[in-house]
């Protein structure tokens, strides 16, 4: 059986009914850079997360059967306390305290906790389309 060699994460995709709004959120909150996106039959915007990782924001198909909104393992409600066990993407920052304060200043509802048996602090919140996000502390 063949095993993939050199496998690594290339991109994360998120559907949205408003890709521009979502792109502006990730640029404003994380300082990510918008990069050249392909021309497709639907709107897409690409955001550079790191040299080898991108966020692909894709226009939601108007005939999709699934509603937009936050989902987690325990509850389909916009409540960040459900995210530690629910679906989310995690980023790390070295300025954790000031980052959390910036979320509060923007009126973003958060849930904070510390990882058990580890000196890592975590904050959970949602993007404008209800996608779960975690930001973990990282030493500078």
From TrEMBL:
InterPro entries: Glyas_Bleomycin-R_OHBP_Dase (IPR029068), Glyas_Fos-R_dOase_dom (IPR004360), VOC_core (IPR037523). Signal peptide: none annotated. CDD domains: VOC_like (cd07245). Residues 8-138 form the VOC domain. This is VOC domain-containing protein. It comes from Populus trichocarpa (Western balsam poplar). The lineage of its organism: Eukaryota, Viridiplantae, Streptophyta, Embryophyta, Tracheophyta.
């Amino acid at each position: 059986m063949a095993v993939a060699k050199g496998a690594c994460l290339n991109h994360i995709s998120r559907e949205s009914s408003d890709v521009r709004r979502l792109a502006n959120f990730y640029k404003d909150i994380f300082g990510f850079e918008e990069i050249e996106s392909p021309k497709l039959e639907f709107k897409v915007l690409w955001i550079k997360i790191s040299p080898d990782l991108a966020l692909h924001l894709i226009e939601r198909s108007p005939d999709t059967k699934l509603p937009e909104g936050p989902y987690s393992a325990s509850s389909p409600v916009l409540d960040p306390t459900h995210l530690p066990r629910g679906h989310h993407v995690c980023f790390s920052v070295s300025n954790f305290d000031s980052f959390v304060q910036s979320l509060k200043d923007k009126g973003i509802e958060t849930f904070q906790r510390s990882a058990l048996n580890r000196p890592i602090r975590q904050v959970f919140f949602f993007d404008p389309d209800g996608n779960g996000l975690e930001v973990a502390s990282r030493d500078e």
